[in-house]
Inverse folding.
């Protein structure tokens, strides 16, 4: 297993939509490297012929064909009322005309 | 004894005979809160007005002579990770400081149907990530047995309020031990039911293949009563399992004759506090003297459980926590340069350090080039851990272990070293990987006066057997009757 560098931390932070200053980047690099070193313990295990577990009750596996006897859990396709739009929007930092508001994504000057 | 000290089942008898009213009981609990909560700090939000309304409602039923459920009029605290309609639900995070759910979690709807009284919302490690409740963005919760120590985590508030008698019982959530470990450290009963037993609709998601809701109570009987109220499949949660729900009080049998109890040798490592090892050995000796067969077993992959957990749980968390982006709810940075900048600033300012660490760890473990080496490897290790338990339950009915390798530690002692904190979960994560039901019951005290927990694990859906062993142990010992003397004369 690989370790992680400061560049790696910057890359992963971008994927996770987080940002750190240089000091935080150093701090996380050091801590994550130490945790990953501990996790490297898993390399002691021979797992070539071991199937992965994604869900502990085999009869309820959601990914088609991933295990024998797998079945989807489905419910009837019936239209039911949702929560009132106004109540949901009450929690939004910005709402306008029944929609969530976000900073401008399209630049009109082009 | 004051009303707030009693169990739910004892209080139900008093309510039913109309010796007391639910309003008196609720007032007794709030009086206790006024006395000790400034020192314990287990609650993030108190809901006294609605609690008194709920109590009067229950009283009306009792006065009518209606058949009232065992939890009617009983003051219950709720971990702040469970959505409560109209009541702020923060998950211990700044990012959800002002989040007021427009709906109730299924467990809340069920508790309301049973006539329970909600006292308030309890403190927790941010997004349930932690083992000491020190990762809350709001406050430090103090262990009632020694206010200088942590209550465990992540459901530390829910454990502390039951221990401090500021609630009769409570709900928490357990991903890698977050009910069982704080129950052990606070000297109360805490149970994680089988994965899929309880609907998680309205439980804010951390690691979806592991999360489960469960009760904290003052004894095993109350635990069974609370399970009766919250278990069952739910169309709103496709991971809730459609199997019959027994009456869990049928597991309350004071007899373990003929039951086989396995004690896994791998849990008794040098890292285990010797006083805890002794206490657990005395507990299994009690069960043996009552007619159970106690034998040593082996769960050979135990030592890989923490490494496996700290890939799987952060990986799932990194996906689940992607939703906190400042758009639909919660905190938003007000001066972003663009949309992506808004996401990044919102998340970096809104999440605490441990949550960021786990998002980073999980995102790394799922990133291109590393997914097979980390996430898939961990899922395979999980299969091996689960297979150990499958083999063990062919030979034994219940497995007995310590719940935590140490008693409650000092506030601040492990915050500088995340890996040391992660190792607090070494006794509880294996069963989480296998989705097993597990309970922690008080089994003694170390010399410093802090409580010790005995963990009892069963095969999937074998909660009744686990309860039977726990109940028998409790009925033949006195540990659960001990109450902390909270030092209310110290500085607040």
């Amino acid at each position: 297993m690989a370790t992680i560098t400061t560049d790696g931390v910057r890359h992963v932070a971008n994927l996770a939509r987080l940002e750190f200053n240089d000091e935080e980047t150093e701090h996380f690099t050091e801590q994550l490297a130490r945790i990953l070193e501990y996790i490297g313990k898993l390399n002691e295990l021979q797992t070539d012929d071991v199937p992965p577990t994604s869900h502990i009750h085999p009869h309820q596996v959601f990914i088609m064909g991933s295990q024998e006897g797998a079945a989807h859990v489905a419910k009837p396709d019936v239209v039911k009322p949702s929560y009132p739009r106004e109540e949901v929007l009450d929690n939004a930092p910005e709402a306008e005309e029944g929609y969530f508001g976000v900073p401008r994504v399209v630049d009109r000057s082009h | 004894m004051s009303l707030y000290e009693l169990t739910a089942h004892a209080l139900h008898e008093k309510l039913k005979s109309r010796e007391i009213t639910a309003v008196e009981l609720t007032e007794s609990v709030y009086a206790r809160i006024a006395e000790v909560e400034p020192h314990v700090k287990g609650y993030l939000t108190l809901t006294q007005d609605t609690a008194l309304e709920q109590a009067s409602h229950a009283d009306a039923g009792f006065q009518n002579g209606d058949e009232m459920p065992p939890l009617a009029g009983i003051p219950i605290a709720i971990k702040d990770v469970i959505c409560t309609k109209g009541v702020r639900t923060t998950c211990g995070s700044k990012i959800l400081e002002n989040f007021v759910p427009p709906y109730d979690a299924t467990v809340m709807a069920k508790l309301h149907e049973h006539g329970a009284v909600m006292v308030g919302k309890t403190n927790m490690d941010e997004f349930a990530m932690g083992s000491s409740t020190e990762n809350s963005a709001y406050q430090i919760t103090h262990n009632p047995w020694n206010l200088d120590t942590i209550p465990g985590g992540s459901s530390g508030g829910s454990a502390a309020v039951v221990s401090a008698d500021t609630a009769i019982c409570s709900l928490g959530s357990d991903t890698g031990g977050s009910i069982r470990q704080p129950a052990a450290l606070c000297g109360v009963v805490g149970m994680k039911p089988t994965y899929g037993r309880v609907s998680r609709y309205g439980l804010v998601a951390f690691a979806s293949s592991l999360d489960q809701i469960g009760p904290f109570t003052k004894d095993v009987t109350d635990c069974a009563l609370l399970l009766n109220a919250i278990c069952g499949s739910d169309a709103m949660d496709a991971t809730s399992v459609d199997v019959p729900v027994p009456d869990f009080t049928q597991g309350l049998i004071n007899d373990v004759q003929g039951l086989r109890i396995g004690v896994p040798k791998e849990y008794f490592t040098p890292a285990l506090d010797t006083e805890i090892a002794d206490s657990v050995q005395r507990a299994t000796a009690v069960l043996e003297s009552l007619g159970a067969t106690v034998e040593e077993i082996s769960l050979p992959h135990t030592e890989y459980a923490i490494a496996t957990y700290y890939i799987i749980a952060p990986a799932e968390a990194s996906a689940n926590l992607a939703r906190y982006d400042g758009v639909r709810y919660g905190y938003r940075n007000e001066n972003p340069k663009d949309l992506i900048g808004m996401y990044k600033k919102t998340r970096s300012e809104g999440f605490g350090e441990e949550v960021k660490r786990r998002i980073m760890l999980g995102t790394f473990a799922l990133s291109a080039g590393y997914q097979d080496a980390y996430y898939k490897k961990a899922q395979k290790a999980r299969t091996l851990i689960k297979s150990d338990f499958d083999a063990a339950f062919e030979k034994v009915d219940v497995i007995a272990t310590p719940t935590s390798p140490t008693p409650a530690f000092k506030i601040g002692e492990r915050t500088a070293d995340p890996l040391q904190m992660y190792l607090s979960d070494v006794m509880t994560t294996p069963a989480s990987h296998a989705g097993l039901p597990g309970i922690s019951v008080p089994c003694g005290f170390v010399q410093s006066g802090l409580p010790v927990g005995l963990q009892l694990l069963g095969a999937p859906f074998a909660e009744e057997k686990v309860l039977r062993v726990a109940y028998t142990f409790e009925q033949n010992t006195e540990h659960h009757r001990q109450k902390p003397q909270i030092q209310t004369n110290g500085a607040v």
